[in-house]
Amino acid sequence: MEANDWNQHIWFLVELYLQHTNQTIEGTNKNVHLTVKSALADKGQPCDLIPEELGIYREVLEQWHTPNLNEITRLIGRMSEHHSMLASELGKSLEFGNYDYAFYPYEILYLLHVRKKQGLPNPSHFDDFLMNSPEAKMNIHDPEPYPEWDPVLRMIDDFYRKNYPEYIPNHHGVLFG
């Protein structure tokens, strides 16, 4: 992500993360995109791409912690519809117009993950195509396990650690358990 990012869903993810973890950027975890935009403008930095509105994401941010299953199901349905509509413009849409985001409903999966961690109810099924795709069925583990080290990768890493003192991982110890 760049500070001057036009993607509404990215700003949604940042703000949801900040709210979920009780952290802030520029002293806030509400309307973060506008706060960052203002801070960048005050410093003469580029900020014209940052959206003024977050659309459906603003509504979700205001209600993501609702215990009302019907309400969160309705909001997720609207998010899915929004995502699908923009993804259908693959190659044209700025928001979901590339393969990085078009087929993976990251923003919805993260919302479900956060709600689960908070002990809030999540829908058990969805009626739309996007949330019934294989990509939407990914299991998110907490924490995500690291993959097993490939023996060849281990050999290369050991070689560089031994022969190049300036090798960046040498300054950080074991990178992956």
Task: Note down, in words, how this protein is organized.
The protein has 177 residues and is mainly alpha-helical. The protein folds into 2 domains: 8-137, no CATH class; 146-177, no CATH class. The protein has helices at residues 8-21, 32-42, 56-63, 69-87, 99-102, 106-117, 151-163. The protein starts with 7 loop residues before the first helix and ends in a 14-residue tail after the last helix.
What are the defining features of this structure?
mainly alpha, 46% helix, 7 helices, 177 residues
Query: Which series of helices and strands comes N to C?
Result: HHHHHHH
Residue share in β-strands: under 5%
Q: Report helical residue fraction.
A: 40-55%
| Oligomer type | single chain
Integer average pLDDT: 87
**Alpha-beta classification:** mainly alpha
Radius of gyration computed on alpha carbons:
20 Å
Number of strands: 0
Net shape: globular
Distance between the termini: 27 Å
Counting DSSP H or I runs of 4 or more residues, the number of helices is 7
Low-confidence stretches: none
Counting structural domains, the number is: 2
Main sheet overview: none
Topology of this structure?
Layout: H1 8-21, H2 32-42, H3 56-63, H4 69-87, H5 99-102, H6 106-117, H7 151-163
Helix pairs in contact: 1-6, 3-4
In short:
The chain has 177 residues and is an all-alpha fold. It has helices spanning 8-21, 32-42, 56-63, 69-87, 99-102, 106-117, 151-163.
